[in-house]
């Protein structure tokens, strides 16, 4: 599987130049960059995980290097600091990002390193907390948020061992990208409180769409707690 890491170089040093009344300014820049990059990566068929906001992870299977180069140049134009980027490859996203991370350490700012790697199928497990709306109404908005964060941490810790990378999407939605061969292990989290739609595709966006389709079918049928949808 292929992962591209984009790092905003010397980002912390830049934030310290903004003065003490800076957190709102940092939030503005972070969400602006995330919005623009998520949109651009999605148009390419990929998926972008903001992670720390100074380090973006791009699931890149099915995307040509020419498009990734264009993405890098776009990020350079948007960023308040210099950017550097590295592609990594591995059996799963964790291995791929590890290789990309090692590459970043030796790369000069402003540079992009891409290898010629084969594309692999992508799997996404989209977890959904059952009864989230009722939980919010019966307790409070923040209490429900805390419960979702417990799910996020649980998913992250368990699927990390499978080589999966996890992102909270908002609401009660949590996704994990992983090797399709490791999906069974990720379904151990499914319970009466959690359902999961699994999508498999040739690109990350296609896999995400299939996972959403699987969740929609679960809600309609109300017979199963997980379902797999694959293909185009």
Automatic annotation (TrEMBL):
It catalyses: GTP + 3 H2O = 2-amino-5-formylamino-6-(5-phospho-D-ribosylamino)pyrimidin-4(3H)-one + 2 phosphate + 2 H(+). It comes from the Archaea. Keywords: GTP-binding, Hydrolase, Nucleotide-binding. Its EC number is 3.5.4.29. InterPro entries: GTP_CycHdrlase_3, Nucleotide_cyclase, Rev_trsase/Diguanyl_cyclase. It holds the Pfam family GCH_III. Coiled coil: none annotated. One of its GO terms (molecular function) is GTP binding. It is an enzyme of class 3 (hydrolase). Catalyzes the formation of 2-amino-5-formylamino-6-ribofuranosylamino-4(3H)-pyrimidinone ribonucleotide monophosphate and inorganic phosphate from GTP. Also has an independent pyrophosphate phosphohydrolase activity. Belongs to the archaeal-type GTP cyclohydrolase family. This is GTP cyclohydrolase III. The gene is gch3.
């Amino acid at each position: 599987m292929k992962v591209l890491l984009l790092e905003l170089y010397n980002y912390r040093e830049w934030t310290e130049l903004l003065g003490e009344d800076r957190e709102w300014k940092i939030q503005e820049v972070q969400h602006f960059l995330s919005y623009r990059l998520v949109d651009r990566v999605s148009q390419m068929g990929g998926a972008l995980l903001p992670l720390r906001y100074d380090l973006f992870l791009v699931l890149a299977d099915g995307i040509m290097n020419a498009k990734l180069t264009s993405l890098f140049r776009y990020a350079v134009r948007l960023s308040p600091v210099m950017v550097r980027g590295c592609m990594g490859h591995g059996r799963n996203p964790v291995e791929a990002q590890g290789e990309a991370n090692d590459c970043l350490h030796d790369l000069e700012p402003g540079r992009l390193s891409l290898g010629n790697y084969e594309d692999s199928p992508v799997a996404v497990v989209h977890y959904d907390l059952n009864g989230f709306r009722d939980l919010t109404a019966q307790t409070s908005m923040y209490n429900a948020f805390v419960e979702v964060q417990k799910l996020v941490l649980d998913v992250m810790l368990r699927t990390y061992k499978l080589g999966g990378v996890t992102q909270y999407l908002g609401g009660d939605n949590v996704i994990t990208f992983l090797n399709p061969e490791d999906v069974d292990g990720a379904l151990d989290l499914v319970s009466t409180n959690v359902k999961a739609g699994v999508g498999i595709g040739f690109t990350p966006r296609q896999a995400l769409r299939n996972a959403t389709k699987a969740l929609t079918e679960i809600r309609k049928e109300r017979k199963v707690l997980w379902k797999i949808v694959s293909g185009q």
